[in-house]
């Protein structure tokens, strides 16, 4: 088994068989595309199958959190390009973290999913990828995105996976077999890969049916820009209810989400008359009418230029798969294929991007023969608890979002219950038209709660409802979009990490309330961010590259500093699987580093040492050189405290300078010792590398 896996290298092939691709990714959504970019940078050959003939232009996700942006930062300027391309921050400013540049070198952004897809594709092209329509992948050289190819069957064999893809050629469906070492299913919420390998999901299904209306209106954009700039608008009105997402106010691009109740209300009710005329999509009257009514309520006038581009139904679930890794570690799920949440809080795509960041270095380690396939089980051990947590958090947040309509006398859970009662009782005996008018009648009664007649301050019921809404907002108990503790502070308790002690504190259950991120160097946490400057090569181009996106922090730093400063996160390579050992310039820590270099070499793993000098150090090159020779993969850096109130590196990590931290290639901490490096360096480091590379998970 081990030997079969060990032959699965990006430069070699299984048993000399050139036809086997190391990694095949099914699904070219944001998660599949991010994985292909990360793998390619790590030198792993991969290709992507995408069933659609073109990329979706539906905006969907729009909130990219800090951690995802840090992942994109590893992709050669992609994060910076996203930041440059997003709508001006002033238009959605209420949702930005003001303090974030202290805790992360990069900011959250508001950027539509389809635009992100475009930038990911551009980045992949720069890495040598080709988007190919029609038949392809003959050479199996990887670096291809095969459009119009749907994965329809999977056959796992002793040392490979056979994937059958269906594609259209000259009007006929054809089939093609592709052999790969590992198949990653990033094929979205309705994942075929998940179904084909028989993995079930656990959680709550069918929480809400919605229609998403993607439309353009410069008039609405201008109005909101001048009067009420923002990102999300909740509209409650006597005729309909919806959430308006302003994807780009300047370009007048919006999505309106409206609930609907099948089978009494059908998607066709909204879209049956949608037709394509001269290449332009015209929507049916019902839908336009509902949209217009809602928008009218928001802006107080009809829009002359509303142009509906696309209408999509979608169902809200809160589910996570029972298994992430199956078929002897040859089939792996990531992104929506592994979890689907309510979009409240914007965790869906972000969690998927962070899944593949966790997975990419592990896949590369297996493919390159550094780690056994058992390391892949640590992907599930680490990511499944995060998905379960984020599902619960998104559910809490979804329920919090419902607090406002509930306070207005319009509880959507009651609407859902009414709907279920109709389905389960009269649904079986009454004709559907009658059911529908019962439902419409009941909902109209519900929405009447929002009429001016009730909701005015002279009506005792109305004024108490309005006071309740005020209270909800004042106490921050409505929908939250800022989850710093969960965005940057998520932590892996079990997997490719060595815990500090046998007792692991489980994270607190989500409350739906905002919690601040507290930097931590506990094993499993993301390495805290701190600004640092390289000492040994003060003007080195190699380390600095283009990574100083946080140069303008507070607008107060000098140009010289700006050129030389980077983040501690930049110490971790995005171009190869490399561990990072951070130590202070202390004799015992240098000896630990020497031992760690030797052990890493025995494991065939790459490791770099970072010697962290205290703020103000000017020259320290000679000392590290003398202490670390013959090893030369080290860097001397000095911490840069941007204000006197900020902590030193070791204080930030809640450690002393006699401690040490081993960081994994995904910037999560594999091991640390808080204050004193253990005596038997070599055996401690063997234990650490064995766990971090998954040898203990066999
Ligand atoms: C209204 C709404 C708002 C949202 N807002 C946010 C937000 O602000 N932030 C956030 O993080 N998330 C948000 N999300 C969630 C986000 O859109 C999803 O989590 C994200 O699309 C998941 O990406 P993915 O790559 O896993 O799957 P997908 O984007 O679904 O991509 C899967 C791809 O696989 C392809 N495919 C499917 N089956 C096959 C097959 N058999 N063979 C080949 N290809 C196949 C599909 O065509 C598709 O291109 C939102 C979702 C909705 C509905």
UniProtKB/TrEMBL annotation:
Q: Check the record and name the SUPFAM superfamilies matching this protein.
A: FAD/NAD(P)-binding domain (SSF51905)
Span-the-membrane segments of this chain are: 20-39
Question: Which terms under GO biological process does the entry name?
Answer: ubiquinone biosynthetic process
Any idea where the FAD-binding domain is?
A: 22-388
Identify the InterPro entries for this entry.
Answer: FAD-bd, FAD/NAD-bd_sf, RIFMO-like
Keywords, in A-Z order: FAD, Flavoprotein, Membrane, Transmembrane, Transmembrane helix
* Gene Ontology cellular-component terms listed: mitochondrion
**Pfam families for the chain:** FAD_binding_3 (PF01494), Rng_hyd_C (PF21274)
Q: Disordered: where is this region?
A: 501-520
Mention one GO molecular function: oxidoreductase activity, acting on paired donors, with incorporation or reduction of molecular oxygen, NAD(P)H as one donor, and incorporation of one atom of oxygen
What is the designated name of this protein? FAD-binding domain-containing protein
User: Which species is the source of this protein?
Assistant: Escallonia herrerae
């Amino acid at each position: 088994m081990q030997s079969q896996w060990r032959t699965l290298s990006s430069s070699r092939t299984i048993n000399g068989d050139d036809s086997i691709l190391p990694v095949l990714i099914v699904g070219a959504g944001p998660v599949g595309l991010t994985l292909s970019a990360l793998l390619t940078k790590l030198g792993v050959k991969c290709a992507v199958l995408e069933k659609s003939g073109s990329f979706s232009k539906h905006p969907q996700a729009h909130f990219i959190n800090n951690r995802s942006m840090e992942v994109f930062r590893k992709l050669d300027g992609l994060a910076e390009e996203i930041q440059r391309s997003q709508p001006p921050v002033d238009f959605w400013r209420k949702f930005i973290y003001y303090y974030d540049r202290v805790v992360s070198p990069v900011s959250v952004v508001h950027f539509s999913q389809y635009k992100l897809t475009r930038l990911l594709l551009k980045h992949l092209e720069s890495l040598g990828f080709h988007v190919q329509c029609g038949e392809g992948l003959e050479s199996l050289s990887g670096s291809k995105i095969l459009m119009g190819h749907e994965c329809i069957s999977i056959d796992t064999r002793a040392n490979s996976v056979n994937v059958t893809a269906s594609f259209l050629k000259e009007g006929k469906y054809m089939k093609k077999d592709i052999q790969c070492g590992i198949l990653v299913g990033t094929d979205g919420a309705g994942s075929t890969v998940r179904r084909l390998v028989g993995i079930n999901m656990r959680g709550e299904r069918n929480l809400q049916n919605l229609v998403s209306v993607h439309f353009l209106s410069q008039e609405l954009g201008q109005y909101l820009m001048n009067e009420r700039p923002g990102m999300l608008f909740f509209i409650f009105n006597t005729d309909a209810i919806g959430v308006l997402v302003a994807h780009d106010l300047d370009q007048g691009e919006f999505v309106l989400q409206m609930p609907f109740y099948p089978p009494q209300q059908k998607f066709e009710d909204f879209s049956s008359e949608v037709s394509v005329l001269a290449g332009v999509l015209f929507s049916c009257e019902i839908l336009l009418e509902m949209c217009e009514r809602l928008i009218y309520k928001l802006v107080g006038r009809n829009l002359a230029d509303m142009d509906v581009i696309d209408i999509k139904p979608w169902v809200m679930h809160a589910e996570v798969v029972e298994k992430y890794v199956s078929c002897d570690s040859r089939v792996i799920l990531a992104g929506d294929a592994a979890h689907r949440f309510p979009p409240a809080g914007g965790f869906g795509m972000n969690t998927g991007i962070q899944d593949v960041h966790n997975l990419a270095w592990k896949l590369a380690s297996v493919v390159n023969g550094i780690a056994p396939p058992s390391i892949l089980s640590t992907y599930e051990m680490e990511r499944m608890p995060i998905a379960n947590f984020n599902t619960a958090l998104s559910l809490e947040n979804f329920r919090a979002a419902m607090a406002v309509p509930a306070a207005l006398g319009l509880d959507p859970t009651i609407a859902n219950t009414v709907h279920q009662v109709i389905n389960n009782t009269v649904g079986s005996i009454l004709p559907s038209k009658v059911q529908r008018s019962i439902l419409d009648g009941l909902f109209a009664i519900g929405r009447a709660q929002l009429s001016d007649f009730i909701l005015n301050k002279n009506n005792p019921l109305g004024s108490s409802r309005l006071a309740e809404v005020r209270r909800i907002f004042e106490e921050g108990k409505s929908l939250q979009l800022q989850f710093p503790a969960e965005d940057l502070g998520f932590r892996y308790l079990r997997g490719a990490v060595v815990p500090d002690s046998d007792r692991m504190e489980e994270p607190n259950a989500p409350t739906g309330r905002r919690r601040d991120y507290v930097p931590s160097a506990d094993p499993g946490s993301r390495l805290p961010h701190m600004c640092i400057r390289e000492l040994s090569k003060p003007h080195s181009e190699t380390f600095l590259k283009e990574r100083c996106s946080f140069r303008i922090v507070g607008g107060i730093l000098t140009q010289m500093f700006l050129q030389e400063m980077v983040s501690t996160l930049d110490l971790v390579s995005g171009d190869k699987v490399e561990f990072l050992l951070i130590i202070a310039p202390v004799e015992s820590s240098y000896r630990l580093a020497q031992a760690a270099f030797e052990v890493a070499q025995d494991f065939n793993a790459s490791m770099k040492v970072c010697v962290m000098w205290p703020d103000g150090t000017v020259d320290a090159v000679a000392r590290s050189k003398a202490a670390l020779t013959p090893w030369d993969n080290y860097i001397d850096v000095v911490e840069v405290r941007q204000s006197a109130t900020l902590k030193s590196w070791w204080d930030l990590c809640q450690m002393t300078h006699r401690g040490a931290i081993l960081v994994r290639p995904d910037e999560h901490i594999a091991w640390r010792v808080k204050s004193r490096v253990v005596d038997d360096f070599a055996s401690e480091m063997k234990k650490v590398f064995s766990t971090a590379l998954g040898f203990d998970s066999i």
